[in-house]
User: Which sequence fits this backbone?
């Protein structure tokens, strides 16, 4: 017994035990953060069954809309409420049926082993069949732009037109490398552990700052965190899904980007020319040049969160795209 006590006395002062205590405290905090987020923002729309699980949606507008259906695909660290509250309800007010999906692993959707744009597009295509949503206009924001392009490439019968907003669609520069500690944190075992211990408390601490960074140079929209249901992204599963999505994106874009010249549908690329996160000269401008017939809408002085800071302008541009989509279809 004395020997055991002596060993414990030594361990109390070691960095290992301190680290274990920190991880344990983080795990408890993560459980509380996840529970509070889920209780505050329960599912607010119908689920759609797909192979292996289900996707969560938010829907607005008439179910049978003469103007057509617009599907919204959100970006990283977000869920269906982000594009729905930014631009989706404005489109519904213009007579469109609007369906916003929680991408797999985000919001209330099951992960479904879908981490790439192509895999997530495949699940959304399944859901569109289940919803009997004929060819639709697909609006993808940021990371969602890559998924929207994959949907048009792999399931062209589901898509009548594309609206790509501040899209991440082209391979990143080879000079863009992550610091060693980010590369370590992104390794699957480490990412899994951090997402269930230190990740949620740290993400909660930086939440408002991250929102300000996303909106820059504009200020964040009023009550953005609540309206966009952002705390849902603090839950361990969503944090891990976000890391997997981001780390797998460069290789996925290397595979799908050579096919953009094959697209034959109306396409609109919208970007703020002051976007510090997805620069227009690196993504939107060359993307619009590669998609045959695509139109680039440059919004002077605007940042990354176009659906929120220029929702009316974006809704108007999508409404103008609808007749062209119908004629093409």
Assistant:
């Amino acid at each position: 017994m004395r020997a055991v006590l002596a060993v414990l006395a030594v361990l109390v002062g070691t960095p290992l035990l301190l680290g274990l205590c920190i991880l344990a405290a983080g795990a408890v905090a993560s459980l509380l953060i996840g529970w509070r987020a889920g209780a505050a923002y329960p599912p607010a729309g119908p689920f759609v069954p797909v192979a292996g699980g289900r996707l969560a949606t938010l829907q607005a507008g008439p179910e049978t809309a003469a103007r057509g259906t617009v599907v919204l695909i959100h970006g990283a660290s977000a869920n269906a409420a982000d594009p729905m509250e930014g631009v989706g309800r404005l489109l519904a007010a213009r007579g469109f049926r609007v369906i916003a999906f929680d991408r797999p692993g985000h919001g209330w959707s099951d992960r479904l082993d879908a981490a790439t744009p192509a895999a997530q597009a495949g699940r959304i295509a399944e859901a569109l069949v289940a919803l009997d949503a004929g060819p639709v206009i697909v609006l993808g924001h940021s990371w969602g732009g890559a998924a929207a392009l994959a949907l048009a490439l792999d399931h062209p019968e589901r898509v009548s037109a594309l609206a790509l907003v501040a899209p991440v669609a082209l391979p990143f520069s080879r000079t863009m490398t992550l610091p060693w500690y980010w590369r370590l944190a992104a390794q699957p075992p480490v990412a899994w552990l951090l997402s269930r211990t230190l990740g949620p408390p740290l993400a909660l601490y930086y939440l408002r700052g991250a929102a300000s960074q996303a909106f820059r140079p504009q200020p964040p929209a009023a009550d953005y965190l609540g309206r966009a249901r952002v705390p849902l992204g603090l839950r361990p599963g969503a944090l891990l899904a976000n890391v997997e999505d981001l780390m797998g994106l460069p290789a996925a874009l290397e595979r799908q980007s050579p096919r953009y010249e094959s697209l034959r549908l109306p396409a609109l690329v919208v970007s703020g020319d002051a976007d510090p996160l997805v620069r227009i000269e690196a993504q939107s401008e060359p993307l619009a040049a590669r998609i045959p017939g695509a139109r680039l809408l440059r919004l002077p002085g605007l940042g990354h969160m176009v659906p929120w800071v220029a929702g009316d302008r974006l809704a108007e541009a999508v409404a103008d795209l609808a007749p062209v989509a119908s004629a093409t279809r």
